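Handout, page 2. Input:
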Amino acid sequence: MTGPAQPRWALVHGFGTSRGVWRRVLEGLPAGALTPELPGFGDNAAAGRPGQTTADMAESLARTLRAAGEGPYRLAGHSMGGKVVLLLAARHPDLVAELLLVAPSPPSPEPMSDEDRAGLRAAHGDRAALEEQYRTIAYSPLLPEDFEALVRDGLRADAGAWAAWTDVGSLEDVRGDLGGLRAPVTVLYSEDDTSITPDTIRGQVLGALPQARAVATRGSGHFIPLERPQDVLALLAPQEVQS
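Output:
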């Protein structure tokens, strides 16, 4: 006899990407998942606007999830999406049963040099710059189709939303909002990630979430859902996914 069905997973992409960043995970997820896109990115690029905040994205996502009418959700967020789902869970605890943060941007300002921030800002719409960026933050070469999809997503992202994350969202400190967080949290990160480094995870993510379960992997850069989908699947559906 089986127990009650688990809440459905919703998988949220990170900066400059789209639902496509989860493609390798979805291939191995028997029950499937909802894959909403944040304003300014993917098929939702037209909804982006200059100056949009982490809260703006979290509220947009909350409306999307409520409209789907299947909550509460188990929410996974990659990179920027990790910060967004964390804030959503704190502000709308009724919507969230569980959180999986994958290589998440920290709830405090993301450490980045002025030079790197300027380079990220300037990469919008520049194929060569995007290709160099994605090669740098992946641990080893991605599959060609996955790499090209990332570049295409970067090229179609809204310019205002791109600059807003670089200059606003990534610098926000939302730790003061986390008092409403009730859902259990797991943080999956790579010891080989040069974008959101292990030191950032341990100091700024786990430091702000002392109750969280930490799971470290190796052999992946920042794109864990594409580089090590099996590690994500082991946390999304440990009883269903075959090794």
